[in-house]
Design goal:
The chain is of the alpha/beta class and 403 residues long. The protein folds into two domains: 242 residues, 3-Layer(aba) Sandwich (Alkaline Phosphatase, subunit A); 145 residues, no CATH class. The protein is built from 14 helices and 15 strands. Helix 10 links the parallel strand 10 and strand 11. Helix 5 packs across helix 10, helix 6 packs across helix 7 and helix 11 runs parallel beside helix 13. The longest helix has 26 residues. The radius of gyration is 21 Å and the shape is globular.
Length: 403
């Protein structure tokens, strides 16, 4: 038996007035997702408990079967693994966004989705002017980058920029949670404010402004942590697995979980991603892997942009160009597989940030009877046979490993 998780990042939502008080999942044309729900068993999944931040890092840890209370050490360390940055035990890694600040407020979390090539030039300049023996910046993908501090403290309160669009930037600079962390907090504030002097005058930003695009006029730190130690999927379940994603967070989780990271040309993390390439990579991976974690970022980005039409479209493309292509390939190759589809968390378009709350899940195992659910959405799954899943119940149910 093979296993595939189709993860539509941030697909879940609240009822939207302009959609007739339905969610994007309820109005989207998604025949393949509905077919998985109809043939399988459905329910809801609490991927993030109320005492944890409702981010993708916590949610995807839970989905993969790891207890975030034990293994969550911040987003930066996860993305460091994806970028191949080796961390020492006393290193602190932080996510470092390039963002746009306008009139003293966070305009967006992505500097208008700056390109990877443009961003690399800016991070290079930040390194030239701000890096030293204790601070180093590493370029990542589009607006998502990494900062590593030698012998810093991870006891820092940071504010994810995607959750604070429209808020005053100066009121959201890093803060120490303990007196011992104050030197680290001061350093991070200094670096952020220094970037406000460095970035606006760079040629990349001057050109973006001339083109009517948002400049990347600030670095922004969040999600600090130190290197975790996690058992691999081979150790936990005896499975050889792979992960396919455009974003470093998911790739980094895959590295720590011992999954092979499969790169797909043209995978962007946005709605213009290479859907067919990711689907074909998944089918090829099944030749020598037992488990594939197939991630799509586009619905989450649409939620952060508060673009309901784009979110509906992202879900429809996920269904039509990725999930359906994989399902057709399984049938063509006569591959017997258990498949699951779910979001990692809610990203309501009305708010533009991640929120707590259960997400819908459907698991189709060809050897198990279906329940009565006919559609895949937040409301329809409530009558499903799976009930409400928590912790590692999802992955153990999918893999047939019991509790």
């Amino acid at each position: 038996m093979k296993y595939i998780v189709f993860l539509g990042d941030g697909m879940a939502d609240d009822p939207v007035p302009e959609l007739g008080n339905k969610t994007p999942l309820q109005v989207a044309e998604k025949p393949t997702l509905d077919r998985i729900a109809r043939l399988g068993r459905c329910g809801s999944f609490i991927t993030v408990t109320e005492d944890m931040p409702p981010g993708s890092e916590v949610a995807n840890l839970t989905i993969l079967g790891y207890d975030p209370h034990r293994y969550y050490q911040g987003r930066g360390v996860i993305e460091a693994a994806s970028l191949g940055v080796k961390l020492e035990p006393d290193d602190v890694a932080l996510r470092c966004n390039l963002i746009c600040i306008q009139d003293g407020k966070i305009k967006n979390h992505s500097a208008g989705h700056i390109t990877t090539e443009e961003a690399a030039l800016l991070i290079e300049e930040v390194n030239r002017q701000l890096a030293n023996e204790t601070v180093r910046f590493y370029p990542g993908f589009t607006y998502r980058h990494l900062c590593v501090l030698k012998k810093g403290s991870a006891e820092i309160e940071c504010f994810p920029p995607h959750d604070y669009v429209g808020e005053k930037a100066l009121e959201l600079l890093p803060r120490a949670k303990t007196p011992a962390a104050e030197p680290t907090a001061q350093l991070l504030r200094h670096l952020t404010l220094s970037s406000w002097d460095i970035l606006p005058g760079q040629a990349v930003n001057l050109n973006r402004t001339l083109q009517g695009k948002d400049p990347a006029n600030s670095i922004w730190f969040w999600s600090p942590g130190k290197k975790p130690s996690m058992p691999t999927y081979q150790e936990l379940f005896g499975l050889k697995g792979a992960v396919i994603a455009a974003v470093d967070l998911i790739k980094g989780l895959g590295v720590y979980a011992g999954l092979d990271v499969i790169e797909v040309p043209g995978a962007t993390g946005l709605i213009d991603t290479n859907y067919e390439g990711k689907a074909d990579a998944c089918l090829r991976a099944l030749d020598d892997h037992d488990f594939v974690y197939l991630h799509l970022e586009a619905p989450d980005e649409a939620g952060h942009s508060r673009d309901v039409k784009q979110k509906v479209k992202a879900i429809e493309l996920f269904d039509a160009r990725l999930v359906s292509r994989v399902m057709a390939g399984l049938e063509e190759k006569k591959i017997q597989a258990t498949v699951a589809v779910l979001p990692d968390h809610k990203t309501p378009v009305a708010r533009g940030n991640h929120t707590h709350g259960p997400v819908p899940v459907a698991i189709y195992n060809p050897h198990l009877p279906a329940d009565s659910v006919q559609r895949f959405d937040e409301q329809a799954v409530l009558t499903g046979a799976l009930g409400v899943l928590q912790g590692d119940e999802f992955i153990r149910t999918m893999l047939g490993r019991g509790s």
